[in-house]
Design brief:
The structure holds three protein chains of three kinds. By secondary structure, chain A is an alpha+beta fold. In chain A, 29% of the residues lie in helices and 33% in strands. The longest helix of chain A is centred in the last third of the chain and has 16 residues. Chain C starts with 18 loop residues before the first helix and ends with a helix. The chains are: A alpha+beta, B alpha/beta, C alpha+beta.
Chain lengths: 85, 228, 769
């Protein structure tokens, strides 16, 4: 009996990789008087639902999707989280 | 002699590539991405555009198109494969070429006329370019900053896989590592570059330098066939 | 029908106003609808009327004015009333073109507003059966001194590029103008040009009862519900944040697929009629297709492919979801049509049937929900006569024969003309647009012969010797004083930009951006502009093939400068005759064609230095303008010209400087000063062009120009890396005395300094230079 598992995948530029978008956001902060904010990184988040027999099976599917498709491991890291409901 | 020009949904330089190939003296055929063969073509071009909207990452979805199986087979057999702009991005996503094209460091889409230094004159894609000549061509992309980890870049250079570099006076337009504009695989039959040779193939349009690359490809195609 | 707008006695506001008022309909309009239907409309019908009778769809305030425009011409294949104008190009080909506004959506959400504006105008061109080959964008903003305006500019430019770049249509021209009146109400006008085979022109009509209506493209969601009526016809203010959910979102990828699928359907002759879904969505497309075909249409709501659940019938009928088309298809060809859509990955469904009863009927699950005569929604929707009265204060151009003023604006005491020239080239209204245009793909399509940095874009047409030349211009600064003159000047300048390349104009499109037509002096501005447009187009013999009207361009900060944005498409029969604007060789003669007159009002110089209180805008004589164009065309065809550039923003000095910058060659010139140096160098008096020729062609040019009574004066020679202009004549001496001793009567500046000023104009104001 298969159930639905919902996940979020947060994809970020890998540590040490230049993040021009993050840098640009940071550069705009003084204009907003947010001088106390720093270390901005910009990534993206993907949410998806997997139909699977088991939580582990669903997780494995997301693991492989993230590594092969959603992110480019050369420049990006990712974190997978199972969402409630 | 025929060149297959692959059309992904969202390709927008496919007809330009056909026009360029024809100017270079060969036939060209558009091949829809759902096909699983290249129609017996001698070489293949992956043209520019925004395949599948490029919504995830440039080239990331196109890489899974049915036609890419045929492209991979063709490349593995030693068939000539040229990726232009989005086509270059697709080839790197498909791991047929090393590296990744990241967002321009300007964070903008950049349309500019640039000048390319040609590092190798002995390749299937460049042999018609006279030594010492730099090539004037347009770029038009938002994600064209070539990137590889430092050690891999050194290896790439050592193996002579850097084919094109942005040079003065316009210089590096997008923040590419070591101003790399185009690379090839170790075997030398798969090449990708961000600038558009097909848009610089008639002097009326500002330059015909790009035609030298397309002519190289067309002439090499004949030789590769003889070898096979 | 025409409705008199009675001076309504508005009753005390009830707790909840009546539905028709909440939908933006007046009580008089409700009465008219009731008369048309011979009964009270139900809610769905009311919603359909509200979007179709909005200013945006009905042109109810402007239609009576637009009827006065000259629209006929031997080469006009489709004119106003169609989705875009179509003119004959030659070799069996035709050009479809139109300019349209997306001002209010861009003010609310700059990226999506601009992107969907591009998507919308592209679909208008595709709906004529044409492949889009070029985009131009005319953008107007407030001074970019505050970060809000800079964000607006970034968002709009990003949006125009985001859509155009992705669909692979080059952006080859446009305008960028800053004026404080646009601060809270920017203008985003986008023009598109397409090429089609003359015998493959598609029409937006459903002429055959029994044919099927096929909706294809994106699925239908709640996008832009109320968008057309609320965004386009009411003032907006601080509530814009709450309106955000109704903003349409563009999907250029789907747009690209829609273009390719549509062109295949047209090329294979599979369609009887075709209309894109824009403002008022399915209601507009179904009623206009039926009305133009003299038929009716029955729409089955259950068949409409949807993106969201639980949509009410009115939401489906007025949704402005983007990237959709409604095709009229012979049942025998249906399978082929659906197969094409499937291959391009586009949802498609038969959503209706063409009927013979003249009504648009909406049914859901077999139940009739609405029945309205198609013509009542479309061609016979309301018109509202408006009151017109001129404002109190204004400065017109002198009437013909009126004595010009002796002194109309001198350089300030001790001002160096070279410094003025650098300031003008570095002014954001005149400097290089590269900051914008490098964000646009200009060369995709491999047809771009000349792109954005020229006054006109040039595209060769593959398979022929011809080239299409296209330009867009406006004169808002003059329009603040004299809207009729400004509209005529914009037509004249735009046509001149076509003529300097050697091309002949084929047709005019226009986008009229004005304020609230219910305010008499705002309506007067519109009325005057249409008059100026009509007079200039008639005098130059160029048909007006369509356009767009955008009203209510007002904000709490005030009304925008009246803005008649003109677009002209022209053709060069042999691209080998094309003349460019850049200086070409050392030793070429620099010649000015045409004669300048007084008037600094409305000029860029005036923005920097002001003008005398009694000064006026320069005047325009259409016969002189037309004669100049004729000289330019004949000279180009005779290969007399090495370069040609029109004199407009910044005057003669800026025209010469631009030719010098683009050609990387300086010049040594003498300019005769009749009135004052500022007028001679920086006045924007029309009907002039700076050309260069080989010295041995001088007598030929003189003969050609004098034969057509166009003044022709040698200014000097191309050469070196400096621009030198010596001022000679009575006016120069007088002015020099007033300027005081020690000020040279000479402008002398290095080309590198001019280029630097020009290059940095925009990056500087955008905080990047």
């Amino acid at each position: 009996m298969s159930s639905a598992y919902r996940f979020s995948v947060s994809i970020m530029p890998r540590d040490g990789i230049l993040d021009p978008a993050g840098r640009a956001v940071e550069a705009a902060l003084p204009e907003l008087h947010a001088d106390n904010v720093h270390a901005v990184r910009v990534g993206r988040r993907v949410e998806l639902t997997v139909e699977s027999d088991s939580a582990a099976g669903a997780r494995a599917t997301v693991d492989s999707l993230a590594a092969d498709f959603l992110a480019n491991p050369l420049i990006e890291s990712w974190a997978i989280e199972e969402m409630a409901g | 002699m025929k060149v297959a020009v692959v059309v992904f949904p969202g390709s927008n330089c496919d007809r330009d590539a056909v026009h360029g190939v024809q100017l270079a003296g060969a036939e060209a055929e558009l091949v829809w991405h759902e096909r699983t063969d290249l129609g017996g073509a001698d070489a293949v071009i992956l043209p520019g555009g925004f395949a599948h909207g490029d919504y995830l990452r440039s080239g990331a979805i196109a890489r899974f198109s049915p036609v890419m199986g045929a492209v991979r087979e063709h490349a593995e057999r030693g068939g000539l494969t040229l990726g232009i702009c989005n086509g270059f991005q697709v080839l790197t996503e498909a791991r047929l070429l090393p590296g990744v094209l990241r967002r321009n460091t300007t964070l903008r889409f950049e349309h500019r006329w640039v000048r390319l230094g040609v590092e190798r004159h002995d390749t299937a894609f460049t042999h018609a370019v006279p030594a010492g000549m730099t090539l004037r061509m347009p770029i038009a992309h938002g994600e064209g900053a070539y990137w590889l980890p430092e050690p891999d870049l050194d290896a790439l250079e050592a193996k002579g896989q850097v084919v094109f570099r942005y040079v003065a006076p316009e210089g590096n337009p997008n923040g590419s590592e070591r101003a790399i504009a185009g690379v090839m695989n170790e075997r030398g039959n798969v090449c990708g570059l961000m600038p558009h040779p097909e848009r610089a193939s008639e002097s009326m349009l500002g330059s015909d330098d790009g035609l030298l690359l397309l002519r190289s490809l067309v002439e090499s195609m004949a030789r590769v066939e003889v070898a096979a | 029908m025409t409705l008199a707008e009675p001076l309504e006695v508005v009753p005390a506001v009830a707790a909840t106003p009546a539905l028709h008022r909440r939908l933006g309909l007046t009580d008089a309009e409700l009465t008219a609808i009731t008369d048309l239907l011979h009964r009270a409309p139900n809610d769905l019908e009311l919603a359909m009327f509200s979007v179709m009778w909005s200013e945006h769809c009905s042109y109810k305030s402007s239609r009576s004015l637009l009827r006065t425009l000259p629209t006929r011409g031997d080469d006009v294949l489709a004119g106003p009333g169609e989705q875009a104008g179509v003119v004959r190009l030659g070799d069996g080909l035709a050009v479809a073109f139109k300019i349209e506004s997306h001002n209010h959506p861009s003010a609310v959400e700059p990226y999506q507003g601009a992107a969907t504006g591009v998507g919308g105008i592209l679909r208008d061109i595709v709906a004529m059966g044409a492949r889009p080959v070029a985009l131009l964008d005319a953008l107007k903003f407030g001074w970019p001194t505050d970060s809000a305006t800079r964000r607006l500019i970034n968002g709009v430019v990003h949006g125009v590029g985001g859509y155009g770049n992705c669909v692979g249509v080059p952006t080859i021209g446009g305008e960028l103008t800053f004026d404080p009146s646009y601060t809270a109400n920017p203008l985003v006008n986008v023009m598109c040009v397409g090429v089609l085979r003359e015998d493959r022109i598609a029409h937006a009509a459903a002429p055959t009862p029994g044919s099927l209506a096929v909706l294809y493209g994106s699925t239908t969601g709640r996008d832009g519900i109320g968008g057309a009526s609320v965004l386009a016809s009411a003032n907006f203010d601080e509530t814009s944040a709450a309106m955000r959910p109704s903003v349409q979102v563009g999907d250029p990828f789907a747009g690209k697929l829609l273009i390719e699928a549509t062109l295949e359907l047209v090329e294979r002759g599979l369609l009887e009629g075709l209309q894109d879904l824009g403002a008022a969505g399915l209601t507009c497309a179904s009623s206009e297709l039926a009305d133009r075909g003299g038929t009716g249409m029955r729409i089955d709501l259950a068949a409409v492919p949807r993106r969201e659940e639980g949509m009410a019938p009115f939401e489906v009928m007025i949704s402005e979801s983007q990237e959709r088309m409604l095709a009229v298809v012979d049942p025998a060809r249906l399978d082929e049509v659906l197969e094409v859509c499937r291959r391009w990955g586009l949802p498609a469904a038969v959503v209706g049937t063409v009927t013979g009863d003249g009504d648009v009927v909406v049914v859901d699950a077999g139940q009739e929900l609405a029945r309205v005569p198609a013509r009542a929604l479309a061609s016979e929707s309301i018109e509202i006569p408006r009151l017109s009265s001129p404002p109190q204060r204004r400065r017109n151009a002198p009437a013909p024969g009126e004595t010009p003023l002796a002194h109309d604006g001198l350089p300030e005491r001790g001002m160096d003309p070279a410094a003025v020239l650098e300031a003008l080239l570095g002014h954001p209204n005149l400097g290089s647009r590269a900051w914008v245009t490098t964000q646009y793909d200009q060369t995709v399509g491999t047809d771009t012969v000349a792109g954005c940095e020229r006054a006109a874009g040039v595209l060769r047409v593959k398979g022929t010797k011809r080239a299409i030349v296209v330009a867009t211009d406006s004169q808002p600064a003059v329009a603040l004083h004299d809207p009729a003159l400004a509209a005529s000047l914009a037509v004249a300048e735009c046509a001149r930009n076509i003529a300097v390349t050697g091309a002949r104009p084929l047709g005019i499109t226009n986008c009229l951006n004005f304020g609230d037509p219910g305010v008499p002096d705002a309506y007067w501005q519109l009325e005057q502009s249409v008059r100026g447009l009509r007079d200039a187009a008639t005098a130059l013999g160029i048909p007006i093939t369509g356009g767009n009207v955008s009203l209510y361009n007002e904000s709490p900060l005030g009304r925008i400068a009246p803005t008649a944005q003109i677009g002209i498409v022209g053709v060069i029969d042999d691209v080998g005759d094309l003349v460019g604007p850049a200086f070409r060789s050392q030793g070429d003669l620099v010649v000015v064609l045409g004669e300048g007159g007084p008037g600094l009002v409305g000029s860029t110089y005036e923005l920097l230095a002001g003008s005398a209180p009694e000064d006026r805008p320069p005047s325009l004589e259409m016969t002189k303008e037309l004669a100049l164009h004729e000289v330019l065309r004949r000279a180009a065809a005779a290969h007399l010209l090495e370069s040609a550039h029109d004199v407009s923003g910044g005057g003669l000095a800026v025209a010469v400087a631009e030719s010098a910058i683009w050609g990387d060659l300086g010049a040594e010139l003498q300019v005769a000063v009749a009135l004052a140096p500022a007028v001679a160098l920086f006045g924007e008096s029309p009907s002039r062009a700076v050309v260069t020729i080989k010295p041995d062609r001088w007598s030929e040019l003189v003969k050609l120009a004098s034969g057509l009574r166009v003044a022709c004066r040698k200014l000097g020679e191309v050469g070196g890396q400096r621009l030198r202009i010596r001022l000679v004549g009575v006016g120069a001496t007088g002015a020099a005395e007033e300027r005081g001793a020690g000020v040279a009567d000479e402008l002398d500046v290095a080309l590198t300094d001019l280029r630097r000023a020009w290059d940095h104009a925009l990056p500087r104001v955008m905080g990047e230079g």
